[in-house]
Amino acid sequence: MILLPIRRLLSYDCGRLFIKARKVTILLLTLFFVFSILRIITQHYRTTTSTTLNSTEPLWNLIEYQYGNIHFDDHDGTKNETGFDVSIVPDIVHYIQLKNPYLEFVTLISIMSTLRHHRPRLLLIHSDRKVLRGKYWDQVKQLNKTQTYTIIRLNHIKQPKYIFGKKLSSVYHASDIVRLRVLQQFGGIYLDNDVYVVRSLHRFRVFEFAIGWPEDQFLGTQVLICHRNARFLKLWYESYREYKPTLWYYNAGELPTTKFLEKQPNLVHREKIQFGVHYLVDMLYEEQNPFWDKMYYAIHMLARHRSHSDGIVYFNEDNIKDYNRTFGQMARLAYYGSKNILK
């Protein structure tokens, strides 16, 4: 007589447990399905096949950031001294690769140093080549698959031939134009292909425009961190109406320094030393400086300016293993994860 109610009770409890288990199973399957779809989407937008970014992509949300529409005429110039209370520059790093579809090893080192020490949300390589080639590009694609935070994207652009009706004299001057246009479109952090990121650059994202400008020199174009509406960015671009094709650094460095920055230094946050855009060839290729990783936030590697007295024409993943100069430590840390000699 007592067993019957117990049996019914057990049957009722088992039924409830079965229903709960089924609901949990359905929930887990749903979450798995959603996660799988998100993973596919993420991998799609990590693609290193060249396409042109447009405003219909979900990736655009990384670009159209909360502070994208600040107008700096509404703020006093002291903001480039103290900075804003929040990061107003998007966490996007820009590289430019024109004409040459093959990445050099030094460019790979630059990218790997950026991923290791800064970890941007998005890394864009702007190129007039629809496909990049070579083993170092293959390694960038592999990094894109294994990175869990940074999305690497190849963005197709056209190489400019003219500026304000004047023909550009070289691909290097074309690159000068592209970097200004890219920053006007997106904002972010522009790096030359031979810039090594030593430490995180996030602290400079609170400024309207942060730039390397050594004492008694013209500005350096190798590291540019700015909001897309930065006042100096507009002035700099417009100054190309005075483009002089035969003068190598006139429009890129001399004119914007003398015409704007020397008269209105508050247009930028000036870094005299820590962006490493001054001449550091001896420190990099003639010395072993144990303090390089504490002295700078970035270093222009100047690989084409060294003397080759060490017998090395081109650096690669093998000859950096025992290269006993400052650059050797830097390259090993970025590529192998250790500054120590490896042979």
Tell me the β content: 5-15%
**Annotation field: number of helices:** 10
> How many individual β-strands?
11
Structural class: alpha/beta
The major pleated sheet works out as: 7 strands, mixed
Which second-level CATH architecture of the largest domain applies?
Alpha-Beta Complex
Give, in order, the helices and strands: HHEHEHEEEHEEEEHHEHHEH
- End-to-end separation in angstroms reads 85 Å
The stretches of 5 or more residues where confidence is low (pLDDT under 50) are 40-45
The average pLDDT is 88
Shape estimate:
globular
Query: What's the CATH first level of the largest domain?
Result: Alpha Beta
How large is the radius of gyration? 26 Å
In CATH, the topology of the largest domain is named Spore Coat Polysaccharide Biosynthesis Protein SpsA, Chain A
* Helix fraction bin: 25-40%
Instruction: Tell me the number of structural domains.
Output: 2
Widest sheet, order of strands: 3-2-1-6-9-8-10
Question: In words, what does this structure look like?
Answer:
- The chain crosses the membrane at residues 21-41.
- Keywords: Membrane, Transmembrane, Transmembrane helix.
- Pfam families: Gly_transf_sug (PF04488).
- InterPro entries: GlycoTrfase_DXD_sugar-bd_CS, Nucleotide-diphossugar_trans.
- This protein has 343 residues and is an alpha/beta fold.
- The chain folds into two domains: 1-45; 58-271, Alpha-Beta Complex (Spore Coat Polysaccharide Biosynthesis Protein SpsA, Chain A), CATH 3.90.550.
- The protein contains ten helices and eleven strands.
- It has a seven-stranded mixed beta sheet, with helices on both faces. A two-stranded antiparallel sheet has the order 4-5. Strands 7-11 form a two-stranded antiparallel ribbon.
- Residues 40-45 have low confidence and may be disordered.
